[in-house]
## 1
Amino acid sequence: MSTSNVRPLVSLLLCCAFVTSASATNLTVGYLANIFGYHGKNRQGHIISGAMTYAVKQVNEQRILPENHTLQFIFEDTKGETLEGTNAVINMWRKGVIAFFGPENSCEVEATVSASLNLPMISYLVFHVPFFVPK
């Protein structure tokens, strides 16, 4: 992953971090995946997990963040269930996350909760009607 690919995402995360806590040195993002759930035959969380780990490692190794700042992520398996995903968003918010990646399958409720907390959510696979617009 090149630095140019990472910079826009890091800029978004930095904006969130400095709005929520100017003194935070460990910036934590939440990762919501469907690893063991029934819904979603493909369960992209198996693939995205490696990309998430790699991206965070690259951000920290390339020193893209300001001095004395590191990026980390916490994970919760939503099992492809709306209630599990919503619970995960609230739990991660309590732990101080600054943004969310995921969930897959449906995300309408989770995105609404995230928006109500004024935190960005970037979903990597959505087929739910209000958010998915086929070409």
## 2
Amino acid sequence: MDSKQRNAAALHRRINDLVGEFSNQYRAMLAIAREDEDADFSQSAQKELAIKEGAVAIITAAQKMTMLIRDLQELWLFGGLDTLADAKDEEVERKKVAEVARMVEGLVGKIPGVGREGEDGV
């Protein structure tokens, strides 16, 4: 997936486009499928062809939806989904990481026989 499409606005736009495509194709098929009182064989054949084309278009839209779902799963799994990123969240994470690093350094300093460089002649 293109990195420009990894934000909430692009994903919403993609979903809205797919939903619009589904509904437009469905409406078009319903309009075609209306019964005519004086239908002949050529009109019936034309309607049948148009309905088959509409069905193929709906199947294509469903396949696009499946690809979108797969892309979202990959983004979620590999951490590339950029919808919840916030600068404040990153700063909080940095503070937590720094605190954990200080605690680990403190614990390492308390282990007997393990000193900092320069303290034990190393």
## 3
Amino acid sequence: MTTRKVLTLTLVRNIADEVLMGLKKRGFGEGKWNGFGGKVEPGETIPQAAARELTEECGLRAHYLTKVGLLDFEFLNDPVIHEVHVFETREYSGTVVETEEMSPKWYKIEDIPFNEMWLDDPIWFPWYLKGGPQFYGYFLYKGFDTILKQELKSTDLPPTTTIFESVKSQQA
């Protein structure tokens, strides 16, 4: 029986059009550069989980999150599908800090370290960078270093934005 694990991934871009990446220091994906995210906790919405994980992993507080995609990851002989909701924020506050889990660093678009990221990242990340409608991706892995099957397509849905109440009340 297949089950789904709902996760988030948030990508941060600044006014210089750089992307904040985090080097995973422990756990699943250790040693790889990635965005910031993790599990959705009971009682949380998916955007709330994305915002919480961003703060926990790099110290930034998103003022809004824009959903840009959905990625499903399946690992051969593992009954759990990782359902990853991908968000972007360009408005945030706080100071970028290293945490026990992530070591963050800003990258120019042309310097993103794809050779130190998951194998699927060079496939879907350019779609994210160009903007446009939300995307959907599916990747079937054998272990962690072989992709057996992949799919990437447009959902034809426009990006959707969540503005956090605490931010709206501060702006009023």
## 4
Amino acid sequence: MAYNSAPNSPTPNSLPKEKTFGNKLFARLRVAIESDVPHIYKLRQRLAAHHNIIHLLNSTEASIASGLFNPKFNHVTALIVDVSPISFPPTHDFEINILGTKEIDLKSPFIDEEMDEFKVDHNRDIFIAGYIMYYPCFSSFYEKSVFNFENLYIRECYRGKKFGKWMFSAMAFEATRTGISAINWYTSEWNKSAIEFYTNLGARVCDDFRMLTLTGKALEAFDDDSNI
């Protein structure tokens, strides 16, 4: 959240220093690791709440961990944007695959009220700002596989800093590098800002198709093989 001269807006001197980003914001893009799963799950819950479908969300931390790190499903990828008020120290941790870093000049200080909840390293001021998840799948329509773009979420105080484009571009770069034919995903019709964001990146809205889903009792009804 940026602060300006609006009435009752807190001044920089009144912001809690321990949760404030001042003039600089340092960011890095990396591949998710298993310790990120609790954070990814919390962000996934917020994405569902944003779309008013939290009551339909049935995933768990265990199911997300299995999807990302079980050898049977090792093609699912999640990328993470970490942020810090100071530059990232050199890492010799071979488990962390860093794809890029950025240094952002802030127009005004802002607060991250959830710093503690999304802290990556308890010994350093590094916090998760958002994530993207995607995976390749077979397509009988294209000659080669496609990416299914599962979801993307950025915490509110970090929006407007081009992290979404950064993560999307990294996914698209991998698609071109590995010969993927297309990236497919769904966006809510009411989410005009998301549609504008994606179309500005070159995406095309397919009005001829509708997403259908079969789940819950409707799916369980097929458990009786007498109907086959």
